[in-house]
């Protein structure tokens, strides 16, 4: 709950472009292609593909749905929408589809970093410095502007997907010096193997035990109000996977479609086989139910906190298929998704304050004290006891209204990024 969100994966040029894959994507480009390194903003060297932005835009829209549901649905703070004993099929599906958001953003972050590398506009050392500064900037945003928007109280620790991507970028500042295949292998090992460490007891580390929470296991950090929703290491693995798969997005359209579809189907097939037969890959094994619909819901009800192997397989497999489908979506929908997908961090920051602020205003107008909507992350029971909330159909209506309000602002900022090249635009 309240733990999904995007980040602009890496600074990208603001207009679509295609680049040819260099003979050695990991090699630095010739100096003649660079110009003075200190004058080349990192965002000028990235390749942008509409299919990447369209998927990013779609998952931003789904993320907005999740947060509108969090702040407006009358059952949001009563029970988890994936609790099969209490949920409904529509509520479960509404929550499950938003599971696509975080892994898609993180995977695309890795893809974007590779496309920068392959674009050849500046040397590896410049990209490494940029990734370090961009990653640290995202962490600072998570600890300040973002958590205040979610909570309307500060300080409060709430580490989620922006933090995880920030840590991933800091790690990639070093990892881009390795061969791409090594980064890909590292990502696969982390995704497939981190669950094997679930039983580790960090208490033997003494004062260093909180590092395990930051890296591997969600929970509170002793002495600090708040909690870690997204332990960083499993998400860094997904980012490494995206970087390692980056060359797929430089293929010609027909070959790219075949390879991406094959990869997506392989992920989904692996998910079905592992989920149905071995129980490996998720801390909660699938348990059969007599009712077919509940049984199907249980089959896909895998663990996000932290993201299990099965969670990664099913969500990334579905997202890659959606990426291919979006290449054939209607023009008006494509324009909307591209506006969101080309301004993800900007749109993300806007939506937090818009959704939370709207909930406060509507709640006050309905007779709910404003204090109910302040400090919501630290006292969820207060909003549940207040009687606040609307039906799920009303949530969908509010979601469309929020998207309509966001679209002109996102389109405007996408235009700013297309026309201007100041360095600060790479950080928003």
Overview of this protein structure:
Residues 48-261 form the Heparan-alpha-glucosaminide N-acetyltransferase catalytic domain. This is Heparan-alpha-glucosaminide N-acetyltransferase catalytic domain-containing protein. Keywords: Membrane, Transmembrane, Transmembrane helix. The two termini are 25 Å apart. The protein has one domain. It has a two-stranded parallel ribbon with strand order 1-2. It is 58% helix and 1% strand. The chain has helices at 50-72, 89-97, 101-119, 124-151, 161-175, 180-193, 210-215, 232-244, 253-278, 292-300, 309-326, 331-341, 344-365, 380-385, 392-419, and strands at 157-159, 226-228. The protein contains 15 helices and two strands. By secondary structure, the chain is an all-alpha fold.
Topology:
Blueprint lengths: L49 H23 L16 H9 L3 H19 L4 H28 L5 E3 L1 H15 L4 H14 L16 H6 L10 E3 L3 H13 L8 H26 L13 H9 L8 H18 L4 H11 L2 H22 L14 H6 L6 H28 L9
Parallel strand pairs: 1-2
Helix pairs in contact: 1-3, 1-11, 1-12, 1-13, 1-15, 3-8, 4-5, 4-13, 5-8, 6-8, 9-11, 13-15
Question: Termini separation (Å)?
Answer: 25 Å
User: What are the segments in which pLDDT stays under 50 over at least 5 consecutive residues?
Assistant: 3-48
% residues in beta strands:
under 5%
Count of beta strands: 2
**Major sheet, described briefly?**
2 strands, parallel
Assign the structural class, choosing from mainly alpha, mainly beta, alpha/beta, alpha+beta, or little secondary structure: mainly alpha
The ordered H/E elements are HHHHEHHHEHHHHHHHH
Domain count, please report it.
1
Radius of gyration: 21 Å
Strand order of the largest sheet: 1-2
Apparent shape: globular
User: Helix share of residues?
Assistant: 55-70%
Number of alpha- plus pi-helical segments: 15
Mean pLDDT: 88
Keywords: Membrane, Transmembrane, Transmembrane helix
Region (Disordered): 1-39
Transmembrane segments: 96-115, 136-154, 160-178, 183-200, 232-251, 258-276, 309-333, 345-378, 390-414
Protein name: Heparan-alpha-glucosaminide N-acetyltransferase catalytic domain-containing protein
């Amino acid at each position: 709950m309240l733990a999904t969100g995007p980040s602009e994966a890496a600074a990208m040029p603001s207009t679509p472009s295609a680049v040819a894959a260099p003979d050695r994507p990991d090699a630095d480009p010739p100096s003649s292609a660079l110009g003075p390194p200190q004058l080349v903003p990192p965002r000028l060297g990235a390749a942008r593909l509409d299919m990447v932005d369209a998927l990013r835009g779609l998952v931003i829209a789904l993320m907005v749905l999740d947060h509108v549901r969090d702040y407006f649905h009358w059952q949001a703070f009563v029970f988890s929408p994936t609790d099969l004993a209490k949920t409904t099929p529509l509520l479960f599906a509404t929550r499950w589809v938003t599971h696509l958001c975080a892994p898609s953003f993180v995977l695309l972050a890795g893809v974007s970093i590779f496309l920068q590398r392959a674009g050849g506009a500046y040397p590896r050392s410049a990209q490494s410095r940029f990734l370090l500064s961009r990653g640290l900037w995202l962490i600072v945003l998570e600890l300040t502007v973002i958590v205040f928007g979610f909570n309307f109280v500060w300080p409060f620790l709430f580490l989620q997907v922006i933090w995880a991507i920030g840590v991933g970028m800091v790690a990639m500042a070093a990892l881009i010096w390795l061969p791409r295949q090594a980064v890909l292998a590292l990502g696969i090992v982390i995704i497939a193997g981190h669950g094997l460490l679930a039983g580790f007891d960090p208490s033997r580390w003494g004062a260093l035990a909180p590092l395990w929470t930051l890296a591997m296991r969600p929970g509170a950090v002793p002495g600090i109000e708040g909690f870690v929703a997204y332990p960083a290491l499993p998400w860094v693995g997904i980012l490494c996977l995206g970087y390692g798969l980056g060359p797929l997005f430089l293929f010609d359209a027909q070959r790219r479609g075949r390879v991406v579809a094959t990869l997506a189907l392989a992920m989904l097939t692996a998910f079905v086989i592992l989920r149905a037969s071995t129980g490996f890959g998720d801390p909660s094994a699938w348990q059969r139910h007599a009712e077919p619909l509940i049984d199907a819901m249980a089959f896909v009800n895998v663990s996000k906190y932290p993201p299990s192997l099965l969670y990664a397989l099913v969500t990334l497999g579905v997202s890659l298929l959606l990426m291919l489908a979006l290449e054939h979506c209607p023009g008006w929908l494509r324009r909307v998704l591209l506006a969101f997908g080309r301004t993800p961090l900007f749109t993300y920051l806007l939506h937090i304050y818009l959704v939370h602020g709207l909930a406060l205003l509507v709640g006050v107008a309905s007779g709910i004290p404003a204090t109910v909507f302040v400090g919501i992350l630290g006292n969820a029971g207060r909003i549940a006891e207040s009687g606040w909330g609307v039906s799920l159909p009303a949530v969908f209506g509010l979601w469309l209204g929020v998207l309509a309000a966001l679209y002109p602002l996102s389109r405007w900022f996408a235009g700013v990024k297309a026309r201007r090249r100041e360095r600060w635009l790479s950080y928003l």
